[in-house]
Specification:
about 475 residues, alpha/beta, Udp-n-acetylmuramoylalanyl-d-glutamate--2,6- Diaminopimelate Ligase, Chain: A, domain 1, UDP-N-acetylmuramoyl-L-alanine:D-glutamate ligase, Protein-Tyrosine Phosphatase, Chain A, six-stranded mixed sheet, 15 helices, globular, disordered C terminus
Length: about 475
């Protein structure tokens, strides 16, 4: 088999020799046949001929178990720590043996980022990272060639894989940094070396792994440790923990928000429907109104953050207006599905990607402001990783639901039983509450209940798989 460079590669030019030196790897194979380092894959199932396969040892799977499969699929180079088999028969391939393949992936990504040596904006926070990242890339993309983290690659594996997709044509990168434990943001920012950073908020997300919200804030603040000297910092002025966190930062800061007199302030928003919202944007340089094809106060923070970044990169008001009109919410983060004929439709609000107390509260606020629906049905799954306070968070969410104008409540999971209790005790009619252990059961129930004119909000933590409700209802209705 002849192994060539992967045709879809975006990677910057690296030689195999300099990569081996950077990783302090023991190398075997024909270097003359493989002078250039190829793009990287850690998944033997999707690996393309000519790529480098890195055998990562994960919590559930060990990539070394799939070395032979990767070679059969055409991997031209393999980075491994334990061959797990006989590799000498693959004489047309190159092998690099290292002590730790995860560390090798991270070191390789750090090396590639230094060699690329252009502007990186790193985004972190408890909520809205992906939406903010996509909005920022949409605005900046009018003026620059922007690379952004693909999909949800925001952890200790995903961020290195993102960095290894940078190309010479990219002028700047917008990266998403996620975390569930202290120290993760420190690692990711050390790899990505941002010269700009954006903090969206601090909320009860992954609280199970932290003592309190202040500890979450401190972990998010690790991003400042590797922000380049004089780097720009964008932050949510409405979040008290964020503002305290950034108070000691001496570099240039640009704030955004809805309430606290921020540098970039969104105000006077009007929800005209689930797919239309208008608002004002004010700054020292401009004052105008804009319209987006989605609704919700929570999404306005993502808009404000993106405008703050674009403002600092000198986009004009016309460029901002044009870019904002192109905003689209990412999958399962507020998408609207309509089933049926115009004027006689079921409306599904797909917010299935995740759920936490603050985010749910803002979405419920939007539900209460919507008009023109026959019934408003809430399909809510457990909010996970909240630690010992989880039951109370769910209970308080139920009490908030009772103050909304929702007509029915359908809950999924053990934790959401407390949502039911809170709603009942706050006056929500018990006969309008249904509970199910798993999403499939709720999906079957809802598919037989919803009728044209209904709005169904579907939201829950990712592991509860509330997206199965969306798929079940859309599939059933579309096939009818």
């Amino acid at each position: 088999m002849t192994i060539g460079r992967w045709s879809k590669s975006r990677v910057i030019e690296l030689s195999v020799a300099e990569v081996a030196n950077t990783l302090q790897a023991q190398i075997t194979g024909d270097l003359e046949a493989q002078p250039c380092f190829p793009s990287v894959s850690i998944d033997s199932r999707t690996l393309e001929p000519g790529q480098c396969y890195i055998a990562i040892k994960g919590k559930r799977l060990d990539g070394h178990d799939f070395l032979e499969e990767a070679l059969r699929r055409g991997a031209s180079l393999v980075i491994h720590s334990d061959s797990g088999g006989e590799l000498s028969s693959w004489k047309d391939r190159v092998f690099m043996q290292v002590d730790d393949t995860t560390a090798a992936l991270q070191n390789l990504a750090h090396f590639a980022r230094k060699k690329w040596n252009r502007s990186v904006l790193a985004i972190t926070g408890s909520m809205g990272k992906t939406t903010t990242r996509e909005f920022v890339a949409t605005l900046l993309g009018q003026k620059f060639r922007v690379f952004q983290s693909p999909g949800n690659l925001n952890n200790e594996i995903g961020v290195p894989l993102s960095l290894l997709q940078l190309s010479e044509e990219d002028q700047m990168a917008v990266l998403e940094l996620g975390m569930s434990h202290p120290g993760e943001i420190r690692l990711l920012s050390s790899l990505s070396r941002p010269d700009s950073a954006l903090l969206t908020n601090v909320a009860a997300v992954h609280l199970e792994f932290f003592s309190d919200l202040d500890a979450i804030a401190a972990a998010k603040g690790e991003i400042l440790e590797h922000l380049s000297q004089g780097g720009r910092l964008f932050f949510n002025a409405d979040d008290d923990r964020v503002t305290r966190l950034v108070s000691s930062y001496t570099g240039p800061k640009i704030s955004f928000g809805l309430h606290q007199g921020a540098d970039i302030q969104v105000s006077d928003y009007q929800i005209e429907g689930l797919d239309r919202m208008n608002f004002g944007i004010e700054s020292a340089r401009f004052d105008f109104r804009a319209t987006v094809p989605f609704a919700g106060r929570h999404l306005l923070y993502n808009v404000a953050a993106a405008v703050a970044v674009a403002y600092s990169f000198d986009l004009s008001q016309d460029e901002l207006l044009q870019g904002i009109s192109r905003f689209k919410v990412p999958s399962m983060r507020g998408q609207i599905h309509r089933i049926g004929n115009p004027g006689n439709q079921i409306t599904l609000w797909d917010d299935c990607y995740n759920s936490n107390p603050e985010g749910l509260g803002m979405v419920l606020e939007t539900v209460s402001r919507l008009e023109g629906f026959r019934h408003k049905i809430l399909a809510l799954g457990d909010m996970l990783e909240l630690g010992p306070a989880g039951p109370d968070f769910h209970y308080q969410a139920g009490r908030q639901i009772a103050q909304s104008d929702a007509d029915s409540l359908v809950t999924v999971g053990d934790g959401s039983l407390e949502i039911d209790r809170g709603a009942r005790e706050a006056g929500f009619p018990a006969e309008h509450i249904e509970h199910f252990k798993v999403a499939e059961e709720a999906a079957a129930f809802l598919a037989g209940q919803v009728v044209p004119g209904d709005l169904v909000l579907v939201k829950g933590s990712r592991r509860v798989a509330m997206d199965r409700i969306i798929r079940h209802i859309t599939g059933r209705r579309e096939s009818a």
